[in-house]
Specification:
alpha/beta, Rossmann fold, 13 helices
Amino acid sequence: MQRYGVLVVDDSSFMRKSISMIIEKDPQLFIIGIARDGMDAIEKIQRLKPNVVTMDVEMPVMDGITALEKIMNLCPVPVMMLSNYTQEGAEITIKALELGAADFFLKSELIKGDVKEEVIYDFLNRLKIIAQNKNLYLRQAKNLQYKGIASKEGKFSDRGPLVDLLIIGTSTGGPAALQSILPYFPQDTRVPILVLQHMPPGFTKPFAERFNTFCNLRVKEAEDGDVLEPGNIYIAPAGFQTLLNKRNDGGIALKIEESSDERILYKPSVNVTLNSAAPIYKERLLAVILTGMGNDGLEGCRAVKKYNGHVIVEAEESCVVYGMPKAVYEAGLADIQVPLPNILNSIMLYI
């Protein structure tokens, strides 16, 4: 059994001990060291060579964001940020993902008294995924660029678009994957784009706002009643389900609603949105399923194909977690499976 060393970085001795105790519950993980601030972390990373780092955001001497930027330049290693469940915490977390952080987890979820076993399992599983895919994470971090007009900008086909809506669904590894696609859509993109990224509530708004600063298209967190317009990217809000509704004037509006169905694990759920969109758009719908844990999107893509729509999935070789795309591909619902660097060009053939 392969084991992975974790460096825990936090200025609080209580937090270092609490996080270390959680990590050591998994036989594949062990604490290779602890650090009290960002500067200490850089020294320990160079000396101890951990497989993965958990990094607090707010620390004295050197904060987590400054440390992350230096780590990615001096001694690259995958970093999971431990984020605060606040507006400021969400904004800082999005900045960390932009700088190359592999993932993030809500610190409050780990230290509350009645923490659920499934939360602990999720945290440990994501740490192992990061460690196991170390080279992929570091390659993605190195390739992240944020420019308004990108050199690898896609090109439209000579004919009109084959679809009227593009829906992209993703989970673990999604922020980095989306950063290699969304900024490169041309300014005159002819269809609306709806993105469903599994995130905690409160994180999708700063996520959308950050993308809006370096994409050619307008990016916004979706709101109830938004009418889908070409050349706009809508990020489905976390904590809610995003559905589509055809209005009397022919326009398609978004319906953002709370869901009490405990069988639906994800909010937003790719399945819920695709099931809503498929009967409206029929053969004029394109679904793209990127990296992610689990199988959200499987039933939705089944509905897309039922109505003769189109499905692209990310290939295993570029996925951080080959879960969501694998489920769709193995069910025979994908029209094409391609690695992440070829996703944009595949999409452009339809729009």
